[in-house]
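Suppose a colleague, Dr. K., hands you the sequence of a protein chain of 435 amino acids and asks what its three-dimensional shape might be. Before reaching for any lab equipment, you can write down a predicted structure in token form. Begin with the sequence itself:
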Amino acid sequence: MDTGMRLKYHRLKKRMSVEELASGILPTRELKKIESGMKDPSLNELEALCKKLEIPLAPKDNPVGKVLVKNFKSLLLHPQNKAKIMEQYADIHDHPLLQSDEETELEYNIQQIRYFIITGDLDSAEEKVSEIERFKEFMNRDQYYLYQKYIGNYNYILRDFEQALNTYLFADKIAPSSVSASELADLYYSIGLTASQSSKINLGKKYTEMALKIYQQEFVPKRIVECHLTIAINEKRIGNFKKAKEHFKHARTIGSKLDYDPLKFDTEINYGHFYFQFQNFEQALKHLENALQFRPYEYTSDILLGYTIMLKCHIELNDLEKAKILIEKGYNIIKEKNLSLSSPSNDTFKEVYIEFMCLYYFVKKNYEKFEEELLEKLIPILESRFDNFEIGFYFSLLGNTYLKQNEFSKASSAFKKSAHAFKNTIKINEEWEET
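The predicted structure, expressed as tokens, is then:
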């Protein structure tokens, strides 16, 4: 920063007006000229302004502070161990060298946004974003790029996928040439994942494949697995089952060698769901049972997710006795933890809870409640995700319940909706095409 920008930075940091800082030292209009770079202050003016701001006359060289921020940033790039990240943050948070020069301080504040997102402290993340918004003009290109990227991270966590995607794409547009390959791959993966969530399938595939290529060159196994999973899910959604299976196999092969249970769970449950959609229910159950081995009991949402897919397999196999056993196990978890849609939770849990309860009413033969929960709650969720296979499955299930009740007109309508959804599963929807 030049002298004027540096004075303005610390004035804003102290939330002082131009008039307050200039008072007793020089005319306000002259301070405005200094801050805008139109003129340099005299030595006496500079000494007085710095004294009032409680800062040294010139910025200090701070190599140690820069190393502290660089190491912290590297730890945040591929987070696996939250406890380790929180431990390092506690060690460096109050370090005076992180505030001893403007560039290091600004860089550290930007990295704090991502730290709060990773550790789940979204209130602090929001506060930090608002706080740093006032200092955008002082950021160099690298810092502004990271700031935009981390805002994308924040919007993604809030499930505002459209805003997150737009912010990520802007970050990609302004990314400086100095950005490391790993950092760029992280952005590409974020774009790929968010585009996939927004049903922009081809865009998601494009960026995830770009990320995968870099991660393979850099040899980052965790992210290699995550990229394969994202690509596989996208291929599956547009009916490219052969390619989907190849990527699922790569993800499982590499993921099984890593000492990271959450990734093993994601790999196995997605592979299991793939086999369910491919109607290989025995193979699906094998992978789903494997998945549950990697999730402790307290991960309620993931446990219920595994149960719901297994329940659908048992229903397709007409093995209602095993379905009843799973229903009781899942419902006991819900009762034990006193869970409901009104429980404080994220959208992912609520979606899983709704689907599980639909299956609960079906297995319990409470068809009136099953129909109500399905049509009013579950189908709108599946439609918002363009999940045609699941829509087809549930309308088929609903059609069969109507047949049992001799409601043939309703059954015919449900089966038509099921057939239409399944038809959409095996063709590329033009709305997903990126021009």
